[in-house]
Amino acid sequence: MTTAKYLRLSSEDTDLRNGMKQESNSIGNQRNLLDAFISRTPELAEGTVIEFCDDGWSGKNFDRPAVQELLAQVKQGMIQCIVVKDLSRFGRDYFTVGNYISRIFPFLGIRFIAINDGFDSNNSKDIDSLETSFKTILYDLYSRDLSRKVRKARRFRAERGEFLAPFAPFGFDKDPAQKNHLVIDLPAAEIVRRIFQMAGNGQTTMQIARILNNESVPTPMLYKRAAGCSRTIWPCVHEDNFWTCNTVSKILRDERYIGKNIYGKRTRDVIGSTHTVKVWRKDWIVVADTHTGIITKEEFDRAQDSMRVFAEREGQPLSAARGKLRCGVCGHSLVKSVGKSNFFYCRTPLVSDLFDCAEVHILESDIEETLLEGLRVQTAFAVEMSHIWKERQQKAKKNVAATVKTLSALKEAHSKQTQKIKSLYESFFTGEIGKAEYLAMKATAIKERDAIAAQIAEMEASLENWGTDGTLQNRFVDSFKQYAEVQALTDEIIGDALDTVYIHPGGRLEIIWNYQDDFQRLLLDLSTNEKQVERSLENG
Asked: How much of the chain is helix, strand and coil, in % rounded to 5?
């Protein structure tokens, strides 16, 4: 038996590390508790024990790296038991946690133990007991209440003028002497001042970007990175990025350069989710005179006068797709023309000579027509593939428990073949076997290993598509089937179904739809089922 210890420390509990409160939930405390429990439980202590830890992650969602790896190994049959301190460490989402402990884990034959809650799925009465249900509900409600309190506390601090973002904006540094306060970064501030001066003199964002690129002035990302900023993920297309109209425009619109703090431009639409949505400007928290500005109010106003009036819009044609329409040459977002002819084009050639994107443009009507036709094709695939899957599952008579067991054996066989390939090289290196014999044996071992890997991929795809109630569980099918009767695109459809559209020279569209991994997994599952049905027919 392989037992998995799962530990989690919420981001709200980071003050545990500073000794500000008792470490009731700290990682060290959880580890000691789990180790002690496993050591005094013979059937667990005699097996293999592995650990998964999410340090600083909320329990309101399951988008946590360690828990995702844990669940992946569970589905592959590599883990037979999971031990946690209490149910809240596994998760605080009542519906998701309840589904795992009452349906998914029993279905896969996984034992689940929550020590402090006295829960053990080996005791069938624990699984659907009122006590367990009430505890998961209380953990969920507690987490929601805590999230609301944290949001309220952050808004209160923002209203006092505290800077709460993790990284200072370009032109500023975080004050080492005063927490949540900004100080001017002099070299970067000179670049900001120059941008405002050029805008105040009537130069457009396009002209400003081109000047800065021609002079090789470092962009905010390149400047921050050279200065040692710890940020790892940047919203940019290329590592060696360049100034764009959008980058210049964002600086010119930013009131933080006149000493204001701004909070709440985006918010999480669901508690516990990492997805954020735009907040209307009128609902932002804006506090004046919180730090020394880089420019004056007069300089800021002159720059605004030289730019088009900013207007928040929604519901425009293809409005949800605008950030997803990208140049097939440079990868940057396309912009919409202003005038009678509505088309999208790439602005990169106007600010930089690094890419040849001059011919990248396409009519808006052509994009809409092509996307709608592509959506219908994806929908037809989803409907047809779901029908085929259901028919073949009835013939295949899938035994999930047997599949999981077989998968586990295949994983072990794959590992042995990999080790065999390594040992063959060692034998060749020490002179135990000759070169010709080594190459022949290696080729055979690799062929066997790859064949096993193909079987593993097929079985994993099969398990991923098989829901706990025996029905098809595939996001590609679930998403696209609902658009079978759609006659026109909406923001909601584009947001759900579309990933990116690359426009190439000559107007060629490369459409990347969402859920393509699920689509490929379903294709693999169907091909596996077809082989199984053929074998069963041959065996009569």
From this structure: 55, 15, 35
